[in-house]
Specification:
Order of helices and strands: EHEHEHEHHEHHE
Shape: globular
Length: 186
Amino acid sequence: MNPGHNRKPFVGGNFKMNGSRTMVKEIIDRLNALKLNDHVEVVIAPPTLYIDQASKSVGEGISIAAQNAFNCTKGAYTGEISPEQLKDVGVNWVILGHSERRDIFKEADDFVASKVAHALRTDMKAIVCIGEKLEEREANQTKEVVIRQLQAVANNIDDLKKWENVVIAYEPVWAIGTGKVATPEQ
């Protein structure tokens, strides 16, 4: 991204592992009925099972994101989805490095970075999640953690122009589901 370039404001909604066909339809119907601001990029991430349904029913001005993608085009990776497959069904965004993927599925910074790099090579846009756990925050390691997470991604992106297709989502792990919210200063 060139210095001084202003990114369009971005609003994203991740359904996580929630929903049904009915719920996805209701949410999309509500979004489609809104007068969305052309100067704001809106992206929703339904569960993988409902991506095709969402892609076919979402209105103009709303993009669909996958909640994850693998770092290979194809192969014997049961349960995984490649960026190429997502592009094939019209999905141009993917969420990578979410704290739940890092924690529950033990996705290391370098693995997340390889998935980001592969998605970008596939001309997808990536929402890269970063954030620290409560114990890291209490140990004053917030900067160290988020710099480490971002550095892994930066080490895998060799073309500065690719950063135009990256949104960094800072979500401190200690704030998820706790009612605690990070301040703008944090």
